[in-house]
Amino acid sequence: MDAAAKDKAEKERLEREKQELEARYLALILKADKAFTASKYEDARTAYTDALGVKAEEQYPKDRIAEIGKLLGDLAAQAEADRLAAERAAAERAAADKDAAERERLKAEADALERRYRDLIATADLAFDGEEFDRARDKYTEALTVKPEEQYPKDRLAMIEQLLADRAKAMSEADRLAEEKRRLDEERKRKEAADAEAARLAAEEERRRTEDSRSLAERYRKTITEADLAFTAKSYPEARGLYAQALDIKPDETYPDERIGEIDRLMAEEEERRRREAELAAKKEEPKPGVIKKPSNTIDIRKEEEAERFMREAKAREEAEKYERIKKLRRDLSEEEVNNQAEAWKRMEENVAGKQRIAESTDELYHGSEAQRIENAEKLKAYQDELAEIERQRQARSSQLRGASQASGDALRDQLAASNQTRHDLHAEQVQAQLTAAEQVREKLARDSQQGLARNSQARSEVVAVAEGQEALKVRGDELAQGNREQVTETKDVLQRRDAHLSQRSTDQRLAAQERISNTSLNEPKDFTDYNRSKLATEYPQGVTEESYTEGNKVIVRRVVVDGNKADEYSKVIAKWGTFYFRNGQSITEMIWTNGTEGE
Known about the structure:
Strand order of the largest sheet: 1-2-3-4-5
Number of helices: 14
Shape: flat
Largest sheet: 5 strands, antiparallel
């Protein structure tokens, strides 16, 4: 009895579990069918998959999953076809627009040619009617150059020749002479008018040259002032560039050339000091074991050595000329010091003579009559007053000179402060511009994201619209599902792999963009360099490629180092005032240049 009860209880439990399983399966199927009917294919596929997890032997969920995969594949294919059709339509519209623009251009040229021809013919006809046959002949001839195929100008020219011939025959000798005189007078008047116009244009050109000369002098003065301020602030590269600009404006001036020589000397001393410090620092470092530098087989060292030798010789010649100018300046200063000393001795002798006169006048006070003493005392008082006035004027001039010197110093300090403030404001503007650019990039990313969401929403709407038309195909789809299962499975795998690839690529691009923005300092934007690196990698072969060329008075050695899909551009600029190294537009040291382009 107990065994029978247990069996019955077990059967009831199994029946309940079966009913619960069936109820859960039906609920999932109902949910999936509802989502499928609403064209929510992803939700429907998830529910059908869950239903298969409950009852794996059921065929209906499998068929539905296969049908969903096929529908999604069809939608993707339709979307791709629509995209290609849109691209083709856009290309056709662009070609049509280009053809229309070309037709408009040709029509505009033809209209302009026609207008010019008509204007010439109208002018020629007026001259012909006024019996100005020479002017009419010129205009008809010019009209033929515009439209050589026209017969009307040819007929008019023939008529003019015939009229002139008939008039010449009918004209008496006196009339011919009078007509010749009239023609000569007209030609003289035209020539005088042309000469007057030429004189007016020459005067205008002379006035313009005078204004240009004044403007040139003002530009030279302004450039020299800015260069002196930069030199005083020890901004030698900026000062040298400004002095070079001034020398370009007025090549005969010696002051900018002397300043450039002095700047070159100061920069050479600074470069020599840095080189010695770098050598001392390099001596302190121990070489790393196992690192062997090999020269690149694509680098032509001879070009670099020849360029360096050329720049050293040019610099030596410039140094010799500079020292000659310095010697001449020192001689001029020595002569000026001798003249100043002579004037100082002269003034001192005049002061001694004045003191002697005072002493003699004082001695005279003790001789002679009382009237003479009073007169001498008055003379002495007047002379003392005169000396006091001279001393007061001298002190006033000295105070004025000190005030002028102080004012000049204050003005120079104010100029330096203004220059520093200008550079500070410029730096602040650059920083603000970079912040604005970064904000614009973020806004563009946000707009792109919004547009992507809008396109996704539109695609979903289109999917819903297509799903409504697919409702009538359900029965036929069920019949074809078994035969297309393998194809649907393969398509589903391809779509999943593509979706995964697109998702991963989108994530990588977003992370890379965030990393670039976070790593980009305010004064060093890196976006252009990153794009340039990948572009160089497609244009140059693997390894090191060297190019050299001359730009102005500089020799530039360019090396492109390609490693995989990355490329770095190194530049060595050899100038009279020194050698400079760059990587991707950023200044580097010679050691980084050597390690990056010659080391392995």
